[in-house]
Design a protein that fits this description.
Elements (H helix, E strand, L loop, with lengths): L13 H6 L4 H14 L2 H4 L1 E4 L7 E8 L2 E8 L5 E3 L6 E9 L15 E3 L4 E8 L2
C-alpha cells in the first residue's frame, strides 16, 4: 500500500473518487450505464466505418433494429471526422469526452468535430 505522496491512499481511494465527477471511477460508471442503455455496442453486428482521416477510428453496431456508432480521434490534435456512410442518420449524442455542439439537425454524419484524443458515441437510425 502506498502511504504517502500523490498516489497515497489518503488521496486515491474510492470515497474520494466517488466525490470527484471527473474521476476514473465515475467515468467508468457512466460508460457502463451507457453500455447498458445501448446494447448495440455489445450485442450488435459491427462494421468499421470509412473516414477521410487516418487518425479517426469509427465503427457502427446494429442490433434488433437499432444502431449506434462510435467515433474516436486517435491524434493529439482536434479534427473534423468525416464519415463516408450513407446508411446512418444522426439522432443524438450518447457519450463523449467533452460537451460538443449537437450535430446538424438534418442527421448528416459528414462532419463530426472531435477534440484531441476525443470520442463521441452516437445514437443513429439505419436508413437503408
Amino acid at each position: 500500500m502506498i502511504k504517502e505522496g500523490e498516489y497515497g491512499y489518503k488521496g486515491v481511494n474510492v470515497a474520494t473518487q466517488q466525490r470527484d465527477r471527473d474521476s476514473l471511477i465515475n467515468w467508468m460508471e457512466r460508460v457502463i450505464g451507457i453500455r447498458k442503455q445501448c446494447p448495440q455496442f455489445g450485442w450488435g453486428k459491427w462494421q468499421i466505418l470509412e473516414t477521410d482521416s487516418e487518425c479517426v477510428f469509427a465503427h457502427g453496431c446494429d442490433w434488433e433494429g437499432k444502431a449506434a456508432i462510435a467515433v474516436h480521434n486517435l491524434s493529439d490534435k482536434p479534427c473534423i471526422a468525416r464519415l463516408q456512410v450513407q446508411e446512418y442518420k444522426y439522432l443524438f449524442d450518447l457519450f463523449s469526452d467533452s460537451q460538443y455542439e449537437p450535430l446538424d439537425g438534418d442527421g448528416d454524419l459528414s462532419s463530426i468535430p472531435l477534440e484531441a484524443y476525443g470520442y463521441r458515441w452516437l445514437q443513429v437510425n439505419r436508413i437503408s
